[in-house]
Design brief:
- This protein has one domain: 3-Layer(aba) Sandwich (Rossmann fold).
- It is built from eleven helices and eight strands.
- The structure holds adenosine-5'-triphosphate and magnesium ion.
């Protein structure tokens, strides 16, 4: 099972925008994708118009009562793109997990129990906070993508995140196979953006994705219309950059697969 989590300690870096767009793009290209909205804000769910049916199992119910995740999955606009939406009880998930044994691993266990696994890739979107939902999102993934903006605060929050990851992975004896920093909203015409991009290249070279997503107002317009950017404006800067991200991930994920 291949799973990617989008997470950053800083809010508003593009986790939901990038993860949802990538999921849609890959589904349109023929991959079978499961997206999981782990953010109680539910923006991913809104973007993908994922409406749970009445009496449907929720992620909360699956994780807390150890029931199959299959029942928590809803269809989206695309037949190859499924979603586990953020439902109202999501707000209480973190607290409910506290008293559970192996509470940080519930999502990983639930995904592993789906045999045979019906998706090519799982993509998870998490809110910018550190709680048990975040731990579950990290441990259920092999790849972490950290979107960063070309500003000083994004840059500074990376240091804290890497400190957290190092300690957490050591304490829980968990190894993320890949960590990628994805620079988002880059405007190469702004000197400060270029400065921050170069600082990232210098100090985080090993983790910095060689492809970046430039700032593009088409993203907000696509979100407003709840249409994936690749459908809304396929020739836009955003759609083209996103395709490069998809090709990059395709290549690194297949390299890891062949080594296993
Ligand atoms: N490349 C981009 N160009 C222009 N606007 C963008 C780009 N990426 C994201 N945005 C805009 O930035 C805003 C924040 O994006 P988004 O909601 O995806 O961030 P987030 O990291 O998920 O936020 P949160 O931490 O609240 O979950 C949105 O209005 C989105 O449209
Ligand atoms: Mg978000």
């Amino acid at each position: 099972m291949n799973a990617i989590t989008f997470f950053s300690l800083k809010g508003g870096t593009g986790k939901t925008t990038l993860s949802s767009s990538l999921g849609c793009l890959l589904a349109e290209e023929g991959y079978s994708i499961l997206m999981i909205d782990l953010d109680p804000q539910g923006h991913l769910t809104q973007m993908l118009k994922g409406k749970p049916a009445k009496n449907q199992t929720s992620l909360y119910f699956s994780l807390i009562h150890e029931r199959s995740l299959t029942g928590a999955t809803v269809p989206t606009y695309h037949p190859r793109l499924s979603l586990i939406p953020a439902t109202e009880d999501h707000l209480y998930l973190n607290n409910a997990l506290i008293s559970k044994p192996w509470r940080e691993w519930k999502l990983k266990d639930a995904l592993s129990a789906m045999v045979p696994f019906p998706y090519d890739l799982v993509i998870m979107d998490v809110g910018a906070s550190l709680n048990l939902i975040t731990y579950n999102a990290l441990f259920a993934a092999q790849t972490l993508i950290i979107p960063v903006l070309p500003d000083v605060f994004s840059y500074l929050s990376l240091k804290n995140l890497f400190t957290f990851l190092e300690k957490t992975c050591k304490d829980f004896r968990y190894n993320l196979k890949m960590i990628w920093i994805l620079m988002n909203k880059l405007n190469n015409h702004r000197p400060l953006d270029r400065e921050n991009r170069d600082a990232l290249k210098k100090y985080y070279q090993k983790f910095l994705m060689p492809v970046m997503v430039r700032e593009d107002p088409k993203f907000s317009q696509a979100i407003k219309h709840q249409i994936p950017i690749t459908t809304f404006a396929p020739q836009s800067t955003a759609a083209r950059d996103l395709s490069k991200v998809a090709r990059f991930l395709e290549s690194v994920l297949s390299q890891y697969k062949s080594r296993e």
